Amino acid sequence: QVQLVESGGGSVQAGGSLRLSCAAANAILSSYCMGWFRQVPGKERERVAIIDTDGSRIYADSVKGRFTISKDVANNTLDLQMYSLKPDDTAMYYCAADPHYGHCRQFEWVEYWGQGTQVTVSS
């Protein structure tokens, strides 16, 4: 059973920063593709940033230069450092993991999800 537990969400003003963490077993961190998606009510789940099984990183255009995804092997977490937050970044953020290369690129292909953590950015 793959467990993904997110933390670090909250409310900030525009221009602020937050760091999200997703706790996962070491075996998942080391071999699965993993990433962060976000969703607002009434809209499709959107890929924010992923690390594929080959180590490649893919960012949504809307977050490039502001968000950084990384793995903290010492603490067994997948992190998303978010800077220069905008109201449009407001969403529920979900951690995702899948054992297959490429599957984290589309939310429909992802097998495992966390419960989500809310990020709210006020103007």
Amino-to-carboxy terminus distance:
40 Å
Q: Low-confidence runs (pLDDT<50, min 5 residues)?
A: none
Strand element count: 11
Coarse structural class:
mainly beta
The biggest sheet amounts to: 7 strands, mixed
Strand fraction equals: over 45%
What spatial form do the alpha-carbon principal axes imply? globular
User: What's the rounded overall pLDDT mean?
Assistant: 97
Count of discrete alpha- or pi-helical segments spanning 4 or more residues: 1
User: What is the N-to-C succession of helices and strands?
Assistant: EEEHEEEEEEEE
Please describe the structure with a list of short key phrases separated by commas or semicolons:
single chain, globular, 123 residues, 1 helix, 11 strands, mainly beta
Give your account of this protein's structure.
With 123 residues, the chain is mainly beta. It is 5% helix and 46% strand. The chain has one helix at 26-31, and strands at residues 5-7, 10-13, 18-23, 33-39, 46-51, 57-59, 67-72, 77-82, 91-98, 112-113, 117-122. Strands 2, 4, 5, 6, 9, 10 and 11 form a seven-stranded mixed sheet that branches. It starts with a strand and ends with a strand.
